[in-house]
Amino acid sequence: MYKINEIFESLQGEGAFTGVPSVFLRLQGCLVGCAWCDTKQTWETRSEDESTFEDTIGKKTDSPLWAKTTTDILLNHIQHAFKAKHLVITGGEPCMVDLRPLTEAFELKGYRCQIETSGTYPIEASQNAWVTVSPKVGMRGKRPILKEALERANEIKHPVGTDSDIENLKDLLKQIDIKDKIISVQPISQKEKATSLCIEMCLKYNWRLSLQTHKYLRIA
Ligand code: SF4
C-alpha cells in the first residue's frame, strides 16, 4: 500500500528531464523539514486527514488529505487518466517506503520512473529507475545524507541559496565517484543572488544549471 497526496500530469519542470510530459505521483509523509519546502502539506500523515482515493485525486487545491492505495489501482488510474509515460515519484519523501513494487510494475507497462528524493533514506527501487537525489543538508529533521543514496543517484541536484550550499555539495561529491552522474545546482526560490551564484559555479565546475521552469511558467 502507498500513501498518496496527489496525482497530476504536467511537464517536468526541473533537472535532467526538464520539459518532459510527466505524471507526478506525490506520496504523503516527510521528516526532513526543509525551511523553504513548497509541499509542507505532505509532511504529516494524520489519521484525521485520511480520505478515499477518489476524493484525494479529485482535490483542487494543496491539502494534507491523503489516501492509502495499491500499485494496481495506481497503475489502472494513471494508464487511463494520463498520456505521459514518464512517472515522477515525489513527495514528501518517497524513499520512506519501498518503491520496488511500484517502479517494477510501471516499468513493465512501459513507463520510465524517476524518483525525487532528499538522499536521507535508503533507495529501494527497480534497477532502471532514474534517481534524482536533491540533498537536503542540515535541515530541521537532522537527517544525514546517505552515501549509498548518493552512489545510487543518476543525478545529484543540489538546492543552492548561499556559498555554504556549494561547500556542502562539494563535501558530498568527495565521497563518491561522479563520473557517470549529472551534477546540477538549482537556485532556491528563483532568487536572483542564488541564480547568479549557480551560474558562476556551473561554469567553474562544469555542473549543470537546473531552474524550476514550472515556477517561471506558472504551471503545476
Ligand atoms: S525533503 Fe522535500 S518534501 Fe521534505 S521537507 Fe524537504 S523539500 Fe519538503
| Helix share, percent | 25-40%
Mean pLDDT: 97
Order of strands across the main sheet = 3-1-2-4-5-6-7-8-9
CATH homologous superfamily? Aldolase class I
CATH topology: TIM Barrel
Cofactors, ions and other ligands in the entry: iron/sulfur cluster
Named at the architecture level, the CATH assignment is: Alpha-Beta Barrel
| Terminus-to-terminus distance | 26 Å
SS content category: alpha/beta
Strand content: 15-25%
How many β strands by DSSP?
A: 9
Whole-number count of domains = 1
Number of helical elements: 7
Characterize the largest beta sheet: strand count, sense, and whether it forms a barrel. Answer: 9 strands, mixed
* Global morphology: globular
Q: Just give the CATH class.
A: Alpha Beta
Unreliable residue runs: none
Quick overview of this protein structure:
This protein has 220 residues and is an alpha/beta fold. It has helices at 53-58, 71-81, 100-108, 147-152, 163-173, 192-205, 213-217, and strands at residues 2-11, 21-27, 67-69, 86-90, 112-117, 130-133, 155-160, 182-187, 208-209.
Overview of the molecule:
- The protein is built from seven helices and nine strands; from the N terminus they run E-E-H-E-H-E-H-E-E-H-E-H-E-H-E-H.
- The two termini are 26 Å apart.
- Strands 3-1-2-4-5-6-7-8-9 form a nine-stranded mixed beta sheet.
- It is globular.
- The mean pLDDT is 97.
- The protein is α/β, with parallel strands linked by helices.
- The chain has one domain (2-217): TIM Barrel, CATH 3.20.20.70.
- Bound molecules: iron/sulfur cluster (SF4).
- Iron/sulfur cluster binds at residues 30, 32-34, 37, 39, 42, 91-93, 118, 136.
